[in-house]
Amino acid sequence: MAGIARARFENATDVRPFGGGTGQMSMLDIDGRAVGRAVFEPGWQWSKHVQPIAGTTSCQADHAGYILSGRLAVRMDDGTEETFEPGDVMICPPGHDAWTVGQEACVVLDWAGYADYAKPVVSA
């Protein structure tokens, strides 16, 4: 363990834009731990704006996050659905679609599922 560590999303060097100008995800690697901040603009939907990047039929990230602002709806592959609002802590296993609800951008901090989120799939 290196000791106390500090980082700011404003200084992130790993910024991954979503398709169609619908937001971006900023990644920090702080002391070997990945933390991401996603901004999902109104109209963003995983299946429209990230699926073409990820190359999977649904999001396969295992999220543990906190909603800072806006609203985010999530539908699991089995049809279960939940809408998250500011102040909610979110646990969302792999196998889902998600979209911004309303006309306010949704900002999410995620400390589990963003390390490879919105990274293009590289074929071997």
Automatic annotation (TrEMBL):
Domain of life according to the entry: Bacteria
Record's protein name: Cupin domain-containing protein
Domain Cupin type-2 residues, every copy: 63-110
Taxon lineage: Bacteria, Bacillati, Actinomycetota, Actinomycetes, Sporichthyales
InterPro entries in UniProt: Cupin_2, RmlC-like_jellyroll, RmlC_Cupin_sf
Pfam families the record matches: Cupin_2
Annotated signal sequence range: none
